[in-house]
Amino acid sequence: MKNIVIAAGYATRLGELTKNFPKPLLKIGSSTILGRMLEDIDRIPEIDEHIIITNHKFAGIFEEWAKNPTLGPSPERGGECQRCDTEGSVPSVTFSKPIRIVDDGTETNETRLGAVCDLLYAMEKLQINDDMLVVAADNLLFFSFQEFVDFARAKGTSCIMCHEQPSIEKLQRTGVVELDADMKVLGMEEKPQVPKSHWAVPPFYIYLKKDLDLVRHSVENGCGKDAPGNLAHYMVEHTTMHAWPMSAGRFDIGSLDTYYEAVEKYGK
Fold this sequence. Notes:
Layout: E1 2-6, E2 27-28, E3 31-32, H1 33-41, E4 49-54, H2 56-67, E5 71-73, E6 81-83, E7 99-103, H3 115-126, E8 132-136, E9 139-141, H4 145-155, E10 158-164, H5 168-171, E11 175-179, E12 185-190, E13 199-201, E14 204-207, H6 212-216, H7 228-236, E15 241-245, E16 250-252, H8 256-266
Parallel strand pairs: 1-4, 1-8, 4-7, 10-15
Antiparallel strand pairs: 2-3, 5-6, 8-14, 9-16, 10-13, 10-14, 11-12, 11-13
């Protein structure tokens, strides 16, 4: 199984902090946002490689980081690596699986390919023909992806994650799924004005090898290009999928306020 990290966005909502620096490599305590996620995924036996798809503007910074993930690039130093120390501590982040950086060639937010096209680009460039764990790179997670992989193995289908969201307003800004008693996905809507359930879908997916042809031809058959949830929506309509209910929460870093909140809460 390949771990595909979608990290080609420009994080414009974080302003100057990410104007010339990738959000996933911002520091949270003794690691980075992405480093914390990969620490967990790297321990999953099924994963044999981490593939990070980014843009041309930030590819060099990711490549420097990938040479030694125990060093954290610093936005204050133009992406040059420095140790991600907290009060003098030395991080012990090491990854047993290789990390590969894929440059999608774009240099501005206006010319970005979109998350779905970035995934297709990486699949074609690297000739990927394995099961794929596809993840967004800007979340702190309080559960292990191993649980998600085990769920997909048990169901034998491609899978999405889900969590209960009581807020109608928040449901109107995300993907929402209808499920049966076996957690089979009956339908999915993106940003519905009238949500049909309280099951929200975060940006984490497993696409099995048997469904990769559907993935490869998704955009040419009408799938949306921008949000990763567009592909999940398309796949739900064309193959059997199940949804794993998250066993714990996550912290979505989408703005300066949420980044600084994450540093304060989880960076000690």
